[in-house]
Amino acid sequence: MIMPAGRPLLLPANPKFIGITLMMALLVxxxxxxxxxxxxxxxxxxxVVFWTVHQPRRVGLVLAFLLGLALDVxxxxxxxxxxxxxxxxxxxxxxAQRRLLWFPLREQALQILxxxxxxALVEWLTRLVAQDAWPVWTQVLGPLLQAALWPLVGALLLxxxxxxxxxxxxxxx
Length: 173
Hints:
- The protein has helices at 15-33, 43-54, 61-75, 81-100, 105-131, 141-158.
- It is globular, with a radius of gyration of 17 Å.
- It is built from 6 helices and no strands.
- 64% of the residues lie in helices and 0% in strands.
- Helix 1 packs antiparallel against helix 2 (43-54) and helix 2 packs across helix 6 (141-158).
- The longest helix has 27 residues, at 105-131.
- The chain starts with 14 loop residues before the first helix and ends in a 15-residue tail after the last helix.
- The relative contact order is 0.15.
- It is an all-alpha fold.
């Protein structure tokens, strides 16, 4: 197996770990949504995009749609507003998946930023059409913070999958 220089080998992600991280991100997003601050990043969107890029066979459009519907119900929003945004985000992440995996997490953040901005635009446009509500200028900070958090979230989610370079009897990995 040919790997880029300096990159550790990754074990396949445990489906239970993927599910737990998605549920934790959903709960964090719901708790942050109670504050009502528009500039906060969408933690669930970061985790959905991460798993769509790193595990495209396990996390895809259907799961993104279901998580978006759960957010629509929680936020009492137009049914399908967040779901549409998450499906667009997951679809674009799936398209960019092969290219993104060649870059380290810091460089991936720059390439992920347009995806987060486009998903926010879809959400703002549906909100504008359905509820006649103009976006607040502080909502621009959300996608920027999501891209800034990408390396941190990526490092946390990849940590359980890292394989040691040299296996010995002392280390369990």
